[in-house]
Request: fold
Amino acid sequence: MKNTVEIRWHGRGGQGAKTAALLLADVAFKTGKYVQGFPEYGPERMGAPITAYNRISNDPITIHSNIYSPDYVVVVDDGLLESIDVTQGLKKEGAVIVNTRSSKKEIAEQLKRHGWKGSVYTVDAREISVSTLGRYYPNSPMLAAVVSVSGVVEPEEFLKEMRDSFAHKFAKKPEVIEGNMKALETTFAELAEDGAKAVRKSA
Amino acid sequence: MAIRERLSGNEAVAYAIRQINPDVMPAFPITPSTEIPQYVANYIANGKVDTEFIHVESEHSAMSAAIGACAAGARAVTATSSCGMALMWEELYVAASDRLPIVLALVNRALSGPININADHSDSMGARDTGWIQIYAESNQEVYDNFLQAYPIAEHEAVHLPVMICQDGFITSHGVENILLAEDDRVKEFVGEYCPAHYLLNEKEPMALGPYAVSNYYMETKRGQREAMENARQVILEVAERFEKMTGRKYGFFEEYRMEDAEYVIVIIGSAAGTCRAAVDRIREVSGKKAGLLKIRVFRPFPEKELAEALKDKKAVAVLDRSEMFSATGGPLGTEVRSALYGVKSQAEVVNYFYGLGGRDITVEDFEEVYVKLEELAQTRVVKDMYAYIGLREK
Reply:
């Protein structure tokens, strides 16, 4: 991992992109990193495009600006690909991760129209979430995807921290803990097949 | 041992409030400060503090209730932003002139219009003449640290003034960062109990507070406030020293970053100082040019002498303001820094910039450009405009 990794999240108000960024900051913090997780608000309303950011570093972070040349971009809603150039400023050697039911090829074609020729990863967070949790919560698969693709946190460490954090968060509904863990593991497995860099040792 | 945590700026302030456990918190919600009373209300509901929360119908009432509570002898706190503080305006003056050590957690946000919820110092800068002590923060760590120091400053017998603890809306208030927290018992010991010498509910000492003052008395009251503000200077430093003993973190009126040999200096307040810090490092690493940063922490009382001393021998200084005051000559910080330097007959060229109004982002590259311009200015010694803009879209 290079010293500071910068990640930009694109989503719509109410979809949890900000929460996902904060969760990533949380888990990276727990593994000893210096972190920032912050949202950029436009008009506050459900469904409006929102951006959230992460900086994750081994050193203290003092910069308080938005991120314009991220290492990774995460798109929580593929409907945004039409209206926003999500790869704007994305480093050539970086990668974009899209939550979509479309194929990787289709998404790569779509991004090419904005001039993006670099790495593309797709995650069907809906499919993973519904099959493991019975409902659509995109955050767990998207978090696992960004960890898997970026390697900002070691996968084993990530899973351990997430189990602790689910145990805390869902103390009153422990039945969803295993489903969430399964969602994370499934995402890792799928992305490993796709050539993501941070592969689980056991996978 | 400090507690290693990650919190947003609003969480950090609420955490400090929990540790201090003030007697009364009247508050009315407004973005981006809403979370502070929200988190404190949680602490109250969960029995973590016994603060009395007063649900008021406006910010005017919030500050009025804080004044009432503090006058009665209680430790009071409130939080607000932007238009919320504008609605407190009348009461801000009352709190200061009644010499009530209220602490206000201000989350800086632009004033309307156009309506805008983002970081901008117009709210607190507009209130700079109300008689409140104002302390600003670059990071979540600093806003937490400043908040812990607020009551010991405000309640000091030589001061007895209200204190505004300011942080930048969203940038720090909603941004999660690493933070070191002090243990509850150490905070309690540091902040201490509030034992006012005079208070309204003291039946042994009946008194009036905030009565009408005829012309024969009004001016002396203002003179008294000025003296308290002057005394605050020493007290702020003493409290900071005590704080350093507890945490190891050092605070003063302002922070000087790579200033010793600096020739080109940016003076700034708030979260953007962290971004400027990165620009200073990059410039020194890449070109070896002597860039420096002076970050204002205490704006009221204004550290005029110390600031002039720190800046007078520099080649060129850019003062960055995150609020307009429409004097058409510059911003509040720019004007005061110029004025401070006039007194010491400094040869430094000074230029004033507006940046970040209504949350307009400012980047490391923006700061690098300012340093380039400062170098030009030092060579030409011609200030083309009294003030300029950073990141403004020109036609």
Remarks:
- The mean pLDDT of chain B is 97.
- Chain B touches chain A at residues 6, 31, 117-118, 138-139, 168, 170-172, 174-178, 271-272, 274-275, 277-278, 361-364 (CB under 8 Å).
- The CA atoms of residues 89 and 127 of chain B lie 8 Å apart.
- The radius of gyration of chain B is 21 Å.
